[in-house]
């Protein structure tokens, strides 16, 4: 006569307060996965499931195929990376006033209408997180500003990081934009101490 074999089981919340016997296997009915116990750790150690979302800690993946990943705050060491794409924030507006370049949104910003005045660029991580918070000392980031000019040229005359004006180092003084062109400004920002940055700026005309 056939029979069914069932192990002890419970939800993820129930497992959190449960300490199984050494070598015991239970079933997490929330994650639909097996949990291994060692006799002392509450909650045990869930095994990776096929379709559930889990965090892998201290794991080595050998030749994996990872589709459409989102990697936040990771470090790639001695790695070959091919075919990377960058987000470009394209804005159908004219440069004027103070423009906040939020690097969380994109590292390349392109204003497609003709600028109407010299302007201020404020580079920050987001509206709620400063670049100082996002970067550790010794970190660097590159931000590109694409400014469209008509017959009257304008340029970013003031550069700020987190609302504080900085003086970029430049290969030659930048005192104007270029008429009837797109000017590309590249800013390499190196955090050298808390709220202290070295900024390297270049201007390139494209017409």
Please, could you describe this protein's structure?
With 207 residues, this protein is mainly β. The protein has two domains: 9-46, Seminal Fluid Protein  PDC-109 (Domain B); 88-206. 4% of the residues lie in helices and 41% in strands. Strands 5-7-9-12-13 form a five-stranded mixed sheet, with no helix packed on it. A hairpin with a 2-residue loop joins β12 (181-193) and β13. The longest helix is centred in the N-terminal third of the chain and has 5 residues, at 12-16. The protein is elongated, with a radius of gyration of 26 Å. 17% of the residues are buried.
Physical arrangement of strands within the biggest beta sheet: 5-7-9-12-13
Task: Say how many strands there are.
Answer: 13
Mean pLDDT: 92
Q: What's the gyration radius in Å?
A: 26 Å
Strand content: 35-45%
Name the structural class: mainly beta
Low-confidence stretches: none
The tally of structural domains comes to 2
Q: Tell me the overall shape.
A: elongated
Count of discrete alpha- or pi-helical segments spanning 4 or more residues: 2
N- to C-terminal separation? 84 Å
| Largest sheet features | 5 strands, mixed
Helical proportion? under 10%
User: Could you state the order of secondary-structure elements as H and E?
Assistant: EHEEEEEEEHEEEEE
């Amino acid at each position: 006569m056939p029979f069914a074999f069932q192990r002890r089981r419970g939800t993820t919340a129930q497992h959190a307060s449960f300490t199984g016997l050494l070598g015991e296997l239970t079933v997490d009915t929330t994650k639909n996965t097996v949990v291994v116990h060692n006799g002392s750790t509450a909650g045990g150690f869930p095994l990776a499931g096929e379709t559930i979302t889990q965090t892998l800690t201290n794991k080595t993946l050998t030749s994996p195929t990872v589709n459409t990943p989102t990697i936040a705050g990771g470090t790639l060491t001695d790695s070959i990376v091919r075919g990377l794409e960058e987000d470009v924030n394209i804005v159908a507006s004219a440069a004027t006033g103070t423009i906040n370049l939020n690097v969380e949104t994109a590292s390349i910003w392109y204003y497609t209408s003709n600028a109407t005045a010299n302007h201020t660029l404020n580079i920050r991580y987001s509206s709620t997180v400063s670049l100082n918070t996002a970067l550790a000392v010794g970190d660097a980031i590159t931000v590109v500003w694409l400014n469209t000019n008509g017959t009257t040229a304008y340029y970013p005359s003031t550069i700020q990081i987190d609302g504080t004006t900085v003086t970029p180092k430049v290969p030659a003084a930048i005192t104007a934009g270029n008429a009837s062109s797109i000017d590309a400004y590249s800013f390499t920002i190196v955090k050298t101490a808390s709220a202290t940055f070295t900024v390297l700026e270049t201007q390139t005309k494209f017409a």
